[in-house]
């Protein structure tokens, strides 16, 4: 993993984003897909909103995904494998890039076919503790024609990334605008943010 973390650190420092294939192995992805939560799909998840706490709004015209937050103390083992890897990555990035990242928050995500998330930035106006956005995709056999790309808006143009199983995308939450394009298939992922604050402080 160290070499993966190393290239993520280099790319983050140089470009503000990084893409790492096989961040989760095929077996680790399959173990997550086998979880009851993902098997039941969108039905067991909540409609995702925009904004935070009291300002939270549901707006289908902006985002159409369904989510369920992972609670680390009760998360099933296959999810904990991923959370622990993120935790290791945080320690690595802190040392390599002299950051003081402290924690993370992650939800399981389902985009039903045809749904999307319009162009946005992940940092909230009233809360700038989200420093890095990290998304790990869980879609086996995903092809270009399925759509569902993550489109990043970069200084030199756009870059589209397919949500293929095991791939991690990580980018600066304060800088990189992005969107999720509609797909012809259900699109599954673990979506999270690395924070410069402990996550239990976030609900105070
Ligand atoms: O799933 C993705 O590729 C990006 C999701 C996203 O932008 C978000 O949840 O804020
Ligand atoms: Fe986002």
From TrEMBL:
The keyword Oxidoreductase applies. One of its GO terms (biological process) is cellular response to hypoxia. Keywords: Dioxygenase, Iron, Metal-binding, Oxidoreductase, Vitamin C. It comes from the Bacteria. Its cofactor is L-ascorbate. Pfam families: 2OG-FeII_Oxy_3. Residues 97-196 form the Fe2OG dioxygenase domain. One of its GO terms (molecular function) is peptidyl-proline dioxygenase activity. InterPro entries: HIF_prolyl_hydroxylases (IPR051559), Oxoglu/Fe-dep_dioxygenase_dom (IPR005123), Pro_4_hyd_alph (IPR006620), Pro_4_hyd_alph_FE2OG_OXY (IPR044862). The keyword Oxidoreductase applies. PANTHER family: EGL NINE HOMOLOG-RELATED, HIF PROLYL HYDROXYLASE, ISOFORM C. This is 2OG-Fe(II) oxygenase.
